[in-house]
């Protein structure tokens, strides 16, 4: 290895150490251990252009060990990655030395864990361990789908590789195991995980909790596995990376044995090197071990280091990106339709007429389950949005999320193709969420589906979708105690409140087939936030929209479905299947001369986004008689009912019985809503 190569490695180490020390917070040890591997990947292996970090065919690098963020920040600085502003590359560095010195500080470009959108060159937000691993599987799936869908003979537009740095913590997280199993089944030969096996976690040696043979586990998953015993041997690492790329029919794992805090005289190989600053003495000793100038200031970059990276990844990446853009120009001339689709995918746009086949449903007292109407609308949208792909956690017959006639995303040996639009995640809800995030990072529109109760398994990836502003659609069915005989383990209670409480997640629970159609019409254009669609198992009556207000009111989150003339004495409000209950009560109250109003509230999030005038128009502040009905936790409804209003909701975990008996047991009957409405009307008129 050349002197400049070693100098580049040690500069990554020292910048990372200095950043953590200046912040008095962070994780220096992993950066010190993995600097040689980072150098090998970025300088010699990664097909990435620092001057064009949005180049569509670039290789992706994922730091799943997000606590070692200074390892990535130091590398982004040294390789000269350009900044991004408003979705375009600008001629200034993504990170300066000053940015490195502001590690973990307020408003800095170097937050404690890598944040997508905040720092150019960061491909995904990592931090919760295992999520980056899951994202990488989605990224690899996206490349396979793009290649199978858009590549043509002589035009290999998409052939990028995904490389991940992961660690002992990732290997312990269930989401990484779910994702690894999925990747092995799918034969993702465009994916390499480099496992930093330093055998240290916060509590001490990983022998406290992790004693399995990880290499053998991954072999059982169907991965190609290599074990490298020296994390400082750059030549061996490069050979391992090359061998991994050569394996085309399965993902690769490189188990890399490293020493955490390498070079620190007392803390190397110890837990104290993991999650706390080294201290002045240890830094001084480590720098001496690296042959660092004794009088060098903090954040010192020796002469020639930046130029060395420019001659490596800089020159290689510039040539590759220029070649790709020239190829795409020729492709565009020969395949204009496909090129236009690619450009829309990359820009987050939608094709003209994407919603033209969304159906309108006639009134029907029997109705249809909202999961079924959603499946129909999904297929109507998918016909005109060819890059909509998705699937379920082994539940598509129940969630109705198959795209008809579009095949399964599978390798040929399992009877599918990588151009298939139906994804099969297996019973792996957690991985499904993180994989969907990885797919969405490519620009492909994607969805994952399951039962609402199992959204609990997906809390972390849904939250990360929101943090990254990714337009992932989560379709959850079996939304209430209407699930019936499956009992409390399958009857969601608190999940709606949890989803509504998550910032920047658009949650919608439609009341009938036409609200379902409008929900899809509202959700698909959202290209900077995730959406959650909450659907029923049981049939919901399709309201007569010549009698009641049009379902287009859904776009505002809550709307007046039916109302008396003038000021009402009572407002009945509900979401989803309970809207038909309040409509029945409204009709009875109205027949008795009580002035009532029905408000459908499919989305708190959309309603809260409206101006105060509209909200007051729907829910007049001077009307205190109010009833809210929802087969879920009452949490949150008091903002609309007020302190004295009535809330008919769940206060326990349900029971196992036929749905009709459960409705009666827990008070979700027209009679119960009528009585509550009558009492609230009396309260209002007695004011």
Main attributes?
Rossmann fold, elongated, 3 domains, six-stranded parallel beta sheet, Transketolase_fam, 687 residues, 40% helix, five-stranded parallel beta sheet, alpha/beta, transferase
Q: How does the SSE layout of this entry go?
A:
Elements: H1 3-23, H2 28-45, E1 60-63, H3 69-78, E2 82-85, E3 88-93, H4 97-101, H5 131-150, E4 162-167, H6 168-172, H7 174-186, E5 191-197, E6 200-201, E7 204-205, H8 214-220, E8 224-228, H9 234-246, E9 252-257, H10 280-289, H11 305-334, H12 336-347, E10 364-369, H13 370-382, E11 388-392, H14 396-399, E12 422-424, H15 429-440, E13 445-451, H16 459-468, E14 473-477, H17 495-501, E15 506-508, H18 513-523, E16 531-534, E17 539-542, E18 559-563, E19 570-574, H19 579-591, E20 596-600, H20 604-608, H21 612-618, E21 626-633, H22 638-641, E22 646-650, H23 659-665, H24 670-685
Parallel strand pairs: 1-4, 4-5, 5-9, 8-9, 11-12, 11-13, 13-14, 14-16, 15-16, 19-20, 19-21, 21-22
Antiparallel strand pairs: 2-3, 6-7, 10-17, 18-20
Helix pairs in contact: 1-2, 1-3, 1-11, 2-3, 2-9, 2-11, 5-7, 5-15, 7-15, 11-12, 13-18, 15-16, 19-24
Active site: 429
Protein name: Transketolase
Binding site for thiamine diphosphate: 67, 127-129, 169, 198, 274, 454
Radius of gyration from the alpha-carbon trace, in angstroms: 28 Å
Residue windows where pLDDT falls under 50 for at least 5 positions: none
Give the beta-strand count. 22
- Residue fraction in strands: 15-25%
The CATH architecture of the largest domain would be: 3-Layer(aba) Sandwich
Mean pLDDT over the residues: 97
The level-1 CATH class of the largest domain: Alpha Beta
- So, the CATH homologous superfamily of the largest domain? Thiamin diphosphate (ThDP)-binding fold, Pyr/PP domains
Distance between the termini: 85 Å
Number of domains: 3
- Biggest sheet: strands side by side, in what order? 12-11-13-14-16-15
CATH topology of the largest domain: Rossmann fold
Largest sheet: 6 strands, parallel
**Secondary structure tally, helices:** 24
**Shape, please?**
elongated
Which range best describes the helical content: under 10%, 10-25%, 25-40%, 40-55%, 55-70% or over 70%?
25-40%
- Structural class by sheet pairing and helices: alpha/beta
